[in-house]
Amino acid sequence: MDLSLSTRTEGDRTVVVVGGEIDVYTAPKLREQLIDLVSSGTYDLVVDMEGVDFLDSTGLGVLVGGLKRVRAHEGSLRLVCTQERILKIFRITGLTKVFPIYASVEDAVAATD
Amino acid sequence: MATVEVRFSALPGHVRTGRLIAAAVARRSGMPEGGLDDLRLAVGEACARAVDRHRRAAADQPVTMLLSADDACFTVTVVDEAGTVGPVELPDPERHGEQPEPVEPWPSGVGIAVIAGLVDDLAVIERSDSGGSRVRMSWRLPSTRPAWVGPSLP
Question: Which among A28, A56, A88 is the nearest to B48, CB-wise?
Answer without folding.
Answer: A56
